[in-house]
From TrEMBL:
SUPFAM superfamilies: Fe-S cluster assembly (FSCA) domain-like (SSF117916), P-loop containing nucleoside triphosphate hydrolases (SSF52540). The lineage of its organism: Bacteria, Pseudomonadati, Pseudomonadota, Alphaproteobacteria, Rhodobacterales. Coiled coil: none annotated. Pfam families: FeS_assembly_P, ParA. Binds and transfers iron-sulfur (Fe-S) clusters to target apoproteins. Can hydrolyze ATP. ATP binds at G112, K113, G114, G115, V116, G117, K118, S119. Residues 4-73 form the MIP18 family-like domain. The keyword NAD does not apply. Belongs to the Mrp/NBP35 ATP-binding proteins family. This is Iron-sulfur cluster carrier protein. GO terms for molecular function: 4 iron, 4 sulfur cluster binding; ATP binding; ATP hydrolysis activity; ATP-dependent FeS chaperone activity; metal ion binding. One of its GO terms (biological process) is iron-sulfur cluster assembly. Homodimer. It comes from Marinovum algicola.
Length: 351
């Protein structure tokens, strides 16, 4: 049976192409996880040496398999190289956000607070747009709790035939890539800042998204590195803010809105989720988290309230079952709320 000690010993047999020492001593191996006979880790490497490290990765895979590993997953992520100081005067280079090749629009789905239903909105919105014939991608950048593979009923590891490009997965007409597909289901991932940014850049620029009308990005809650990196590295056409009507959620939502304003990402609108609870037995409506708070906030900010999505058990069951409600019950009132958002985005010309 393979254990961590055997894995470390095997990796010491592989030489590091830059330092000349072994792979473990060079410090490029991060987030090593050994579980039964499966080994996963990330190699954080300077992007200019990607070819040499691709060969080192292949060697590492071979030695691990010889040591008894049946499943080896090694992800290369780029870390920034420190350039030597250049003291010659130079004209400043314009290094603004880049467009992702083939992707016409990028829409970020954000929330200030966790658990308000941001991923549920992102999954339903992506499927609703696909149902309208739009070419849609969904990037699950919620590094702290990637849930899109489960919500879209997708599993398995994305292939990378050449070690550089990553082939995304697809279901319900949506092209999906998620950090959740690169890690174990039950593995809590601790991403360090540079790794996180490297991984996000890989997801944006190395995944073969193909031609997309719209790439929906499911962000982690809050205002952190992922939000900043996304807005700084790519041209984001707009952000949707999801919130429950509770004061605490709204308070956090306001912070998110301020951040997007500072990052110069246009606010496309707000969505009130868990707006009203509809009892699945008697149809009685109750405002569990209050009601109308998001509408009032949207009015104050002068942005549209795109939908009030009820708290309904069918929405959760559908999401947990891998077919979002717009797919599993397209004629329900709940599905209609999500379709309204998709229609508004198409009408706005951003999806
Ligand atoms: N309108 C709704 N009605 C019923 N259940 C819902 C609704 N919206 C979301 N849920 C459920 O609430 C839970 C949290 O939703 P979700 O994962 O979408 O939230 P999130 O804001 O993305 O959370 P995180 O902070 O983990 O990213 C899920 O189990 C989901 O199925």
């Amino acid at each position: 049976m393979l254990d961590r000690e055997k894995v470390l010993a095997a990796l010491k047999q592989v030489s590091d192409p830059v330092s000349g020492g072994d792979l473990m001593a060079s410090g490029v191996v991060r987030a090593l996880n050994v579980e039964q006979d499966a080994v996963r880790f990330v190699m954080e490497i300077p992007p200019s040496r990607a070819d040499a490290y691709t060969r080192a990765r292949d060697q590492a895979e071979q030695v691990l398999k010889s040591a008894g590993a049946t499943n080896v997953s090694i992800v290369l992520t780029a870390h920034e190289e420190k350039a030597p100081p250049d003291l010659k005067p130079q004209a400043p280079k314009a290094q603004g956000p880049e467009r992702v090749p083939g992707v016409a629009h990028i829409i970020a789905i954000a929330s200030g607070k966790g658990g308000v239903g941001k991923s549920t909105v992102a999954a339903n919105l992506a499927c609703a747009l696909a149902q309208q014939g739009r070419k849609v991608g969904l990037l699950d950048a919620d590094v702290y709790g990637p849930s899109q593979p489960r919500m879209l009923g997708v599993s398995g590891r994305p292939a990378s035939p050449d070690g550089k490009t990553i082939l995304p997965l697809r279901n319900h007409g949506v092209t999906l890539m998620s950090l959740g597909l690169m890690t174990n289901d039950d593995q809590a991932v601790v991403w360090r800042g540079p790794m996180l940014m490297g991984a996000l850049q890989q997801m944006l620029f190395q995944v073969q998204w193909g031609a997309l009308d719209c790439l929906i990005v499911d962000l982690p809650p809050g205002t952190g590195d992922v939000q900043m990196t996304l807005a700084q590295k790519t041209q984001v056409d707009g952000a949707l803010i999801v919130s429950t009507p509770q004061d605490v959620a709204l308070l956090d939502a306001r912070k998110g809105i301020d951040m997007f304003t500072q990052l110069k990402v246009p606010l496309l609108g707000m969505i009130e989720n868990m707006s009203t609870h509809i009892c699945s037995s008697c149809g009685h409506e109750e405002h569990v988290f209050g009601h109308g708070g998001v509408a009032a906030e949207a009015q104050k900010l002068g942005v549209p309230l795109l939908a009030e999505v009820p708290l309904h058990i069918d929405i959760r069951l559908a999401a947990d079952g891998g077919a979002p409600i717009v797919v599993s019950q397209p004629d329900s009132a709940q599905a209609r709320a999500f379709r309204d958002v998709a229609n508004a985005l198409v009408a706005e010309g951003v999806a």
